[in-house]
Specification:
By secondary structure, the chain is of the alpha/beta class. Helix content is 31%, strand content 17%.
């Protein structure tokens, strides 16, 4: 029996699958928790499948690279309004106010930051309307290339001296920072930091009602040879992950102890969003996929505007 070694971040909805409450038939599954995404899944000796960046996958497809087989299954989704932070005493409270400002980003080509720049473009703030600095969020993060070849002197540059973005923000050298995760201590009283949009939940709900989706960031992907040798496994693993997520959500409604108000958040989510908000598959995500591809093209991340079919040629409706 073949064993599929899957590398994913530590998402809680994998718990039933990781613990064996849900088991695959016809193959064995090893769930490997990783802190960062696998950079080179195609050549990895450790993993057969993994959580990958939607943006980086699209860049491969735009170059004609078919070294990965990705499914339109989004292991990570998330609104980005919450991911724009500033200082507590900043006068900035809206996206439009970022025109002409200095903005830090944790990675230029990252899916999340591409979605956040899309929010700014919608608000009338183009890339050329701000000054961008790519760097590590805090001193605990490594110094690596975060421009990815997309730098532009005087407009898109590395953070000065590779200083952490939070340090630059607190020193007044940046006006805002785009980050996928909040820095440690962000939520504590007296942190001196806040989301740019104070009522970011209301902004996110308005966004959903406007576009009809929560942006997807990470995909489920396989080495093509695994899918060729075992053609039923990719779709079956996708189904199992969905099943694990449903079971985990059902249990949260009973064991709502993660935070004192988790139950209220579950209630508000059920009332404010359609039951299909987290559905996977090409048709369920066609608009979101198309919008993201259009944004990558408009932002110069990819050289051509890809269609959903071009991004997921092996997983047209009925095949995945």
């Amino acid at each position: 029996m073949v064993t599929i070694r899957l590398a994913v971040r530590d998402w809680d909805y994998f718990t039933p699958l990781a613990l064996g409450d849900i088991r695959p038939e016809g193959f064995a599954l090893e769930v490997h928790r990783v802190g960062t995404l696998v950079n080179e899944l195609a050549s990895s000796e450790l993993y057969d499948a993994a959580e990958i960046s939607f943006s980086r996958y699209a860049q491969l497809r735009a170059k004609g690279d078919s070294s990965l087989l990705a499914l339109p299954h989004f292991l990570m989704r998330g609104f980005r309004q919450r991911c724009i932070i500033t200082t507590e005493n900043s006068p900035l409270v809206s996206l439009a106010q970022l025109k002409g400002k200095r903005i830090g980003v944790t990675g230029w080509q990252d899916s999340g930051n591409s979605w956040t720049r899309a929010l700014l473009r919608e608000a009338g703030v183009e890339i050329s309307d701000a000054y961008w600095f790519a760097g590590r969020l805090t001193a605990e993060h490594p110094v690596v290339d975060r421009l990815g070849g997309f730098g532009e002197p005087g407009r898109i540059e590395a953070a000065p001296g590779e200083r952490p973005l939070i340090e630059l923000l607190q020193a007044g050298e940046l006006d805002a920072v785009f980050t996928p995760f909040m820095p440690q201590g962000f939520f504590l009283p007296g942190s001196g930091l806040r989301q740019l949009q104070r009522d970011f939940r209301e902004a996110e709900l308005a966004y959903f009602n406007r576009v009809g989706y929560i942006p997807g960031h990470h995909l489920l992907a396989f080495k093509p040879e695994i899918a060729q040798q075992y053609p039923t496994i990719p779709a079956e693993l996708s189904r199992l992950i969905d099943q694990s997520a449903r079971l985990w959500h059902e249990k949260r409604e009973k064991y709502a102890d993660t935070t004192p108000w988790l139950l209220d958040d579950l209630r508000r989510t059920a009332q404010d969003l359609p039951a299909s908000w987290n559905s996977n598959g090409l048709e369920a995500n066609r608009k979101m996929i198309g919008d993201f591809a259009s944004e990558l093209f408009a932002q110069g991340i990819i050289a051509e505007r890809l269609t959903p079919e071009a991004l997921f040629p092996a997983f047209i409706e009925g095949d995945a």
